[in-house]
């Protein structure tokens, strides 16, 4: 955990709290568009078109594993890292 905090501070990332995947969004061609994380009180939406991210999201959703997203401090639309807690 300490290593993650130090890394985040060094490269200017901000991390969401661990939340469960509530939705995985696909376009009309079946290509990934984004996903939604939720906990008891808040919902966060993220956009991504990366196929490998979609595969990770499907597993996290199916196995009910909490997920945390690292984004740029200045631009929440830029996903830099995903952490899945098992």
Count of discrete domains: 1
Measured as a percent range, the helix fraction is: 25-40%
The CATH topology annotation reads as OB fold (Dihydrolipoamide Acetyltransferase, E2P)
CATH architecture descriptor: Beta Barrel
SSE class: alpha+beta
DSSP helix count? 2
> Secondary-structure element sequence?
HEEEEHEE
Q: CATH top level?
A: Mainly Beta
- Largest β-sheet summary: 3 strands, antiparallel
What sort of overall outline do the alpha carbons produce when their principal axes are compared?
Answer: globular
Q: Whole-Å distance between the termini?
A: 14 Å
Strand % is: 35-45%
Q: Looking across the biggest beta sheet, what order are the strands in?
A: 1-5-6
DSSP strand count: 6
Low-confidence stretches: none
Rg computed from alpha carbons, rounded to a whole number of angstroms: 13 Å
Which assembly state applies to the chains in this document?
single chain
Mean pLDDT: 86
Give a description of the structure.
The protein has 86 residues and is an alpha+beta fold. A hairpin with a 4-residue loop joins strand 3 and strand 4. It has two helices and six strands, in the order H-E-E-E-E-H-E-E. It has a three-stranded antiparallel β-sheet with strand order 1-5-6, covered by helices on one side. It has a single domain, classed as OB fold (Dihydrolipoamide Acetyltransferase, E2P) (Beta Barrel). It starts with a helix and ends with a strand.
